[in-house]
Amino acid sequence: MARANDHVVIKNDEEEATFKQMKTFRNELVLHPLNSSYEDIELKKGLKYLIVGKVVKKVKIY
After folding, report:
1. What is the pLDDT of residue 1?
2. What is the pLDDT of residue 10?
3. pLDDT tens digits for 46-55?
4. How is the chain split into domains, by residue range?
5. pLDDT at 21 over 80
């Protein structure tokens, strides 16, 4: 199960998918983009969303 601050792949009922960080803002779930050129996406009540995947490990190699 995904929680606030997790990075997820999520799709809506129109089959559009995106990779974002899930955050809470004013007790609402918001999808926050990693690229600051894009705006947050508010998850609207009444619409169906499916979490397709969740990042479980991040590896940086320098």
Report:
1. 77
2. 94
3. 888 999 999 9
4. 7-54
5. yes
pTM assigned to the model: 0.79
The region that residue 20 occupies, defined by phi over 0 for left and psi between -120 and 50 for alpha, beta otherwise, is beta
Q: Who contacts 20 (Cβ-Cβ below 8 Å, separation ≥6)? A: 7, 8, 10, 31, 32, 33, 34, 41
Cβ atoms < 10 Å from Cβ of 43: 13
What are the DSSP calls for 7-55, one per residue?
EEEEEETTS-EEEEEEEEETTEEEEEPSSTTS--EEPPTTS-EEEEEE-
For the chain, first and last CA: distance in Å? Answer: 31
